[in-house]
Each structure stands twice: as C-alpha cells, then as structure tokens.
Automatic annotation (TrEMBL):
Pathway: Amino-acid biosynthesis; L-histidine biosynthesis; L-histidine from 5-phospho-alpha-D-ribose 1-diphosphate: step 1/9
Keyword Signal part of the UniProt annotation: no
Organism from which the protein derives: Ornithinimicrobium tianjinense
The encoding gene: hisG
Every ATP phosphoribosyltransferase catalytic domain range: 58-218
Catalytic activity: 1-(5-phospho-beta-D-ribosyl)-ATP + diphosphate = 5-phospho-alpha-D-ribose 1-diphosphate + ATP
GO molecular function: ATP binding; ATP phosphoribosyltransferase activity; magnesium ion binding
HAMAP family for this protein: HisG_Long
Gene Ontology cellular-component terms listed: cytoplasm
Record-linked PANTHER family: ATP PHOSPHORIBOSYLTRANSFERASE, ATP PHOSPHORIBOSYLTRANSFERASE ATP-PRTASE
Protein name per Swiss-Prot or TrEMBL: ATP phosphoribosyltransferase
Essential cofactor(s): Mg(2+)
GO BP terms in the entry: L-histidine biosynthetic process
Record family assignment: Belongs to the ATP phosphoribosyltransferase family. Short subfamily.
InterPro entries in the record: ATP-PRT_HisG_long, ATP_PRibTrfase_cat, ATP_PRibTrfase_CS, ATP_PRibTrfase_HisG, HisG_C, N-reg_PII-like_a/b, N-reg_PII/ATP_PRibTrfase_C
Length: 302
C-alpha cells in the first residue's frame, strides 16, 4: 500500500530523462514560458518563472508516479499509459489516470509483424504462436478481443530480433518508419494501437491549489500547440481569379482579402492549421495566385 502523498503547493510534471520524448517535452514546456534551475544530479528542475517543477525519469515510471501522487502530470506516449492502465486493471486496481491532452507529436503504432514472405490471413493465424513484445497487456487485450490464444514473450528491447534468435515466431512492437522491421525481415500486418505523446494526469482534480496551476499550464500548452501548428499563408491574385483561388485555400481562419492600391489585384492572408503542402501551393498558382508565401507564427493574441 502506497502511503498518502505529502501536501504540495507546487505542480510537479514528470518528463522522460533521455529518449525520444524528453527534449520535445522540455521544449514544449519552455515555450509555455517555464524556466528552471537544474539540480546538481540533473534529475529535478526547479521552476523559477512558475511554481511548476519537472522530474526527469524513465518513461515507463511516469504513469506510476502520477498514480502514486508523486507527480501531478506527465508527458508520455499513449502506448505506455495504456499498458499501465491494463496492468492495473489486471491487478484488480481501479483506473486512476487519463489523457489530459494529446500533443500531436511522438506518433507511432503498436503493430503485429510477421516474417517477410509469410501470408497474413488474419488474427486467427496467431493462435498458439510465440509473440515477442514489450507490451504484453495491450497485446493480451487485443488477442482476447479477437478470441485468439497465443504466448506473449516479454522483452524490454530489441524485440524485432527475437524471431531470428528463435525466441518467438512473430513480434508486436512500436513502428514509425518501419525501418527496424524491414531490417529484421519482418512486415507489419495489423495495428493494435495508434500512439502519440500525451499529457497524462489523474482522473480527479488536483488539490492544494495545484489544479489552478495545472489549468494555467494547460491554457498555455493549448496556445503553444496551436501556435506550433499555425502558418500564415499570403498570396496575391488578380481580382478575376479570386473565385478560383479562394476555394483552394487550406482549412484555417476566415481569409482576409485586401485590395492592392492602384491595381486590379488583391492580397490574401489566411491563418492555417498545419503545414501547407507544395502541391497545394502549385494548385493555387495554377488558379492564378502569385507571390505565395508560407510563414511560421511566433505569437498570437485574438
Ligand atoms: N520509432 C518511434 N517513432 C516515434 N515514436 C516512438 C518510436 N519509438 C518509440 N516512440 C515513442 O516514444 C516513446 C519513448 O521512446 P524511447 O525509445 O525513448 O523509450 P525508452 O527506450 O523506453 O526510454 P526510457 O529510457 O525512458 O525507458 C515511446 O514510448 C513511444 O511513445
Ligand atoms: O519503425 P522505426 O522507425 O524503425 O522505429 C521502430 C523502433 O523504434 C523503437 O526503438 P528505439 O529505436 O527507440 O530503440 P529501443 O529498441 O532501444 O527502444 C521501437 O522499439 C522500434 O524498435
Ligand atoms: Mg522506457
């Protein structure tokens, strides 16, 4: 039984110490105006600009630290959160965490992959096979949902090599480019979880004034995430081509159309969500636009 957490009036956020999500998570928090003083062991960052401290840990430990009340929030892959949630469930403990925000980066999939050249006929073909994975609970849930009985072989890393070593027949592991699978003669056949980086937190309100600090951080995070994805698209077009150009603009805010002094031309500006592809710019140019420009947005205040 975990002893109750000590009262705290500062928010504590768990972030991966090293690894894929550590740097982007710290950059995101810094873009929310957070500054820190680093402890000598570099495991604790004391928040200077706001009462928000950062604990640097292994990503697998993040859900447990939040569940135990040692940390309030954490930046972690959904894959780790789901595995923790199912582990707790299997041990008969109630769910205690939820996704507070999805961050739109750190995307990867948890896929089942089989040896190249083998035919894939569906989940039933996995019956009785040994499946190497670091995610036994998530795999187990998917197998149950598909009515398949197989044998998970739990490995903490280098899962893709297991079939070559004779430890397993197939694998269930994280995939983004697919390069690691290909290098090991495996092909992905089905996705059992789509993942991305998320802000994880408890499924209840925080106490001792920490909910107010968390709300402030989340408001800034929402703004920072939106800003990161925003682009300003600017172009010029002849009045006559406007009807062809406007329907081709990417999704975004209401465009601003301004008459250019002394010319039969307009200048169009639109704030768009997400990158603008080259093919979109080419389509706009074909429709009569010119002087097209896509600019990052540094700040925004409605
Ligand atoms: N190939 C990938 N592409 C994109 N995201 C990935 C990829 N592999 C993992 N991730 C995401 O990044 C998270 C962290 O991955 P990383 O490899 O750094 O973890 P780790 O080796 O378990 O680190 P730690 O030392 O903290 O335990 C994963 O849980 C997943 O959400
Ligand atoms: O589809 P890909 O782009 O090849 O990425 C997939 C690989 O990335 C992760 O491992 P990572 O490189 O983090 O090494 P690890 O085995 O130490 O976790 C994951 O466990 C896969 O092995
Ligand atoms: Mg880990």
């Amino acid at each position: 039984m975990t002893p109750p957490a000590q009262p705290r009036d500062r928010l504590r956020v768990a972030v991966q110490k090293s690894g894929r999500l550590g740097d982007p998570a710290r950059e995101l928090l810094a873009s929310c105006g957070l500054t820190w003083r680093e402890s000598r062991d570099r495991l604790f960052l004391y928040g200077e600009s706001l009462p928000i401290d950062i604990l640097l840990v292994r990503d697998d430990d993040i859900p447990g630290l939040i569940a135990d009340g040692v940390c309030d929030l954490g930046v972690v892959g959904r894959n780790v959160l789901v595995e923790h949630h199912l582990e707790r469930g299997a041990a008969g403990r109630p769910a205690s965490l939820r996704e507070w925000r999805q961050l739109g980066w750190g995307a990867c999939r948890l896929d089942v992959a089989i040896p190249e050249g083998d035919e894939w006929t569906g989940p039933a073909q996995l019956a009785g096979l040994r499946i190497a994975t670091s995610y036994p609970q998530t795999l187990g849930r998917w197998l149950r949902e598909n009515g398949v009985e197989a044998h998970p072989v739990v490995l903490n890393g280098s899962v893709e090599i297991a079939p070559r070593l004779g430890q397993a027949d197939v694998v269930c592991d994280l995939v983004s480019t697919g390069g690691t699978l290909r290098a090991n003669g495996l092909v992905p056949v089905t996705t059992i979880l789509e993942s991305e980086a998320v802000i994880a937190g408890p499924d209840h309100h925080l106490e001792d004034g920490r909910q107010e600090i968390a709300d402030l951080l989340l408001r800034r995070l929402d703004g920072a995430v939106q800003l990161r994805e925003s682009r300003l698209l600017m172009l010029r077009a002849g009045r006559g081509s406007l009807d062809g150009v406007l329907p081709l603009l990417p999704a975004g805010h209401e465009p601003t159309v301004l008459q250019v002094d002394g010319l039969e031309e307009v200048s169009v500006q639109i704030l768009v969500h997400g990158p603008v592809s080259w093919s979109r710019l080419e389509d706009l140019k074909r429709a009569g636009a010119h002087n097209l420009m896509v600019l990052p947005v540094e700040g925004m205040l409605a």
